[in-house]
Write a structure and sequence with these properties.
Length: 176
């Protein structure tokens, strides 16, 4: 019996050291990733953004203002989408109650439903543009034209923060 107890004691002892090294490497990459994220300061992010020749580089205040505007738009659009979703749900639910409705009522309900769907689609597109602009700020590509790669222009981006094309590429796109 003592021979059986000895291997039982050695097995847990062998497992314990194996677990310790497995935990240590898992923590190290997490610390490195956190350090790498923290390494990019708002000032460094602002300096990294593209500007046209003759424009002053982005300041932290300007970038913060644009980011706050985009985040406020994001919240507003999310609430608009939720409201539209509820209204569309109500319209669809009421559409089944057709008893006693004349053609004018059905037409009015159809018009309201189409109108709500158009508003919801527009809000969804704007939300996608806003999320894309926020992602571009994070990855440092904000302010560059997605078509030609040239700087969009700080004044244009500040006026319309979701802009992804420079003025000449946008004009070319609208002519098509």
């Amino acid at each position: 019996m003592p021979a059986q107890k000895t291997p039982a004691k050695k097995a847990p002892a062998a497992k314990a050291p194996a677990k310790a090294p497995a935990k240590a490497p898992a923590k190290a990459p997490a610390k490195r990733a956190a350090a790498a994220k923290g390494a990019r300061t708002p000032a460094a992010a602002a300096r990294q953004l593209a500007v046209k020749s003759g424009e002053k580089p982005w300041t932290v205040a300007e970038l913060t203002e644009v980011r706050q505007e985009l985040e406020a738009d994001h919240e507003r659009l999310m609430s608009e989408l939720n409201l539209a979703r509820h209204e569309l749900h109500d319209l669809m639910r009421d559409a089944g109650d057709g008893a006693g409705n004349d053609q004018a009522d059905v037409g009015s309900t159809t018009f309201e439903r189409d109108h709500e769907m158009s508003l919801a689609n527009n809000a969804r597109l704007m939300l996608e543009q806003t999320e894309r602009a926020l992602a571009r700020i994070e990855d440092g590509s904000y302010g560059r034209c997605e078509s030609c790669g040239e700087p969009i222009g700080k004044m244009r981006v500040m006026a319309f923060p979701r802009a992804t094309l420079c003025l000449s590429c946008k004009q070319r796109e609208e002519r098509r």
